[in-house]
Design a protein that fits this description.
- The structure is a single chain.
- By secondary structure, the protein is mostly helical.
- The chain contains four helices and no strands.
- It starts with 6 loop residues before the first helix and ends with a helix.
Length: 172
């Protein structure tokens, strides 16, 4: 049988294992007497409190971050809605401006067409008057030439010369 299982051998004063056991019990007794377990427990409690405060701080920061994220998402949604509204308003303004521009262009073209038609009508009237005047002048000269030729062939008639002059003056 091995010697460490021998009960009598264990309690002998020359047994080193007995002295190791007594030293261990004394060490544990001194450690308990001095209050090391309280110190260790206090240090562990302080460390646990510090860790708990860091966890609380992390939870608070996370809550703040989530609130900030929610706020940013809301602001983004509002900005997108505002941008969509502005785009709709700009499109409506562009359509209105297009309609106004077309109406003004139509009006301007109508005015220019009317002005051109008036100028053409005036030019036609002037040309007609010029042609009539030229025709009257030509007719008067032709009539004068014809009458002058007849007079020259028939002789001098004192009543015919003033009548021809009056016809020529009346036609001009």
């Amino acid at each position: 049988m091995p010697h460490f299982l021998d009960f009598d051998y264990f309690y002998r004063l020359d047994n080193p294992e007995l002295w190791v056991g007594i030293g261990l019990l004394l060490f544990i007794g001194i450690v308990v007497f001095v209050g090391v377990p309280k110190l260790v427990a206090g240090a562990l409690d302080a460390k646990a409190a510090k860790i708990q405060s860091e966890l609380d701080e992390a939870a608070r920061l996370r809550a703040e971050a989530e609130a900030l994220l929610a706020q940013i998402r809301q602001e983004k949604a509002e900005a997108e809605a505002q941008a969509a509204e502005m785009l709709k308003a700009a499109e409506a303004d562009a359509r209105r401006m297009e309609v106004d521009s077309r109406a003004k262009l139509e009006e301007s073209l109508t005015r220019r067409q009317a002005l051109a038609e008036r100028r053409i009508a005036q030019a036609e009237a002037q040309a007609t008057a010029d042609v009539k005047a030229a025709a009257v002048d030509q007719a008067a000269r032709t009539a004068e030439a014809i009458l002058a030729a007849r007079l020259a062939a028939s002789g001098d008639d004192p009543m015919l010369a003033p009548a021809v002059a009056r016809i020529g003056a009346g036609l001009n």
